[in-house]
# Entry
Amino acid sequence: MLQAGLLLLAGLLFHSAAKAEYGLNFPEPAAGVAQEIYDIHMLTMGIATVLLIIVFAIVFYSLYFHRKSRGYQADQNFHTSWFGHWSWVIVPVMVLGVDLTIAGKADIVLKKVWDVPKEENIMDVKVTGHQWWWEFDYLDHDIKVESRYIPEEQSGDLYLREVDNPLVLPTGVKIRFLHTSADVLHAFWVPELAVKKDAIPGYITETWAELNREGTFRGQCAELCGTWHSRMPIVVESVSQDKFTAWVDGQKAIKVAAAAEASADKTWSMDELMVKGKTLYETKCAACHQVTGMGLPPAFPALNGSVLTKGPIADHLNIVINGKEGTAMQPWGTLNDLEIAAIVTYERNAWDNKMGDVVQPADVKQAR
# Structure
């Protein structure tokens, strides 16, 4: 029986299929501090494995050689022996020594995690959590990116793991993350970056990372933040500095083009505004008010057939631009005039509303 058990244990340890499962571990680090955390984890697992083998070896030895069927007689004076006296001191000292070995290294790494470098050339990225999406402000480049999850029919196997706009970061550059929230507690967590920090409304907290390889790294909001907490994935796309510069130039060109389009003295047709409005609504508004416009009452009221969408246009514009105090409706005045005009036009004519109203960018400009 014992031999069969030992053979089974050896098979599990050395079989190729079992070796393949060694991949069930922390993800491969992509930053220096993350690598140090990973190394401490592996040290801890190594020590724990050795101790486990020693303890189980002693247990199995004792079970086999000290069993009654072999005629073994229990030692009634074991407690008076040298080991019986000193084991109560030796074992705790050994355990404490292992703990201090791990804790000493961990303390050094924790200081690196929380002590953000004070360097002039550090890159600042403001990370704002929303219900339920992420906003990334590249403060040194005057770029803002909104990142939302992609529905299952578009993301496939990466459902709840894929976003429309990833957080693009360069390698070889120290990056300071400034975390905050626009509503409730969120937490920014990307394991490969060793970054996990609460985003607290009204406060700014800091973490940092320096990416050392290119790749795509996925994280998640790690603070229970409401009904759609699971729909707040984070995707970091790590690229070379040259690729990052090209990406920044592309984002600035898009921003300039959008501003020029919004400021153009043009009268937009309802069809044009409805097409733009549908895309904008589904990316910025549908998380709360639903694609169907039925909302999630009572926190997020329905827009289909509501007093707001069928009431005066001025009231509708006011709440979109300025938000509503005391509710989850935040101000969307940061959108340009064309974007707000398209959203309001869409909301007043989608579903069962059919108001026939066309809101132009000039109307939004006047409402501001």
